[in-house]
Amino acid sequence: MKRMQQYWHQHHELLAVAITAFFLFAGALQYAIGWQYVLYLTPLVIGLIAAMTVLYWQAPATNRVVLFLVAFTVGLVSEMIGVNSGLLFGEYRYGTILGLALFGVPIIIGITWAFVTIAAWQLVSFSTFGNGAKIVLAAGVIVLFDLLLEQFATAFGLWQWAGGVIPLKNYITWLVVSGVLLSIYAKWAQQKQPSLYGAIALPMLAIFFWFMLLVR
Length: 216
Description:
This protein is 71% helix and 5% strand. It has helices spanning 2-32, 42-55, 61-85, 107-124, 131-155, 168-188, 196-215; strands at residues 92-94, 101-102, 105-106, 159-161. The chain contains seven helices and four strands; from the N terminus they run αααβββααβαα.
């Protein structure tokens, strides 16, 4: 029993990665054989991965909670302005799959903003670059992730763009807003070391999106 406890203490984060990857892969396979209910679990899946990412974030608990709420609020408000004005991202509308919405924006979108930026910060934190370079690199990673996310989301009806065209300013806004949030993490997170789960979360989801698009 003691050896099992030691093993869990040493490898629990890696096991969490493996379990998450298994359920993502299982969900994609179920969709591939025609079980389309999987798509409606998207908010739950994103919410759970976001929770795990914050849980494994190697920063003081108060900092994690406050920074998550800041990122959630900034992301949600940005999307509210975007959806209702078309000024920030372009002309787009959310579907019903993502669940409860506030002023046209599903609540899970605010959680997604927090998750994606925190996870990207974990990923680049494994590098030896200074904070400035890490912020630029992480913002670039986020924009690349959004390129795939947009393909997944529009293909499965999570949201739709006017005329079916994703404008360049969508990616510019992602770059700017994420850069602001990443700068806040760099200054205020007091992160001890990067999280393995957080670093792998975005690549795992990217592979999941790609596979879903492949079997669609």
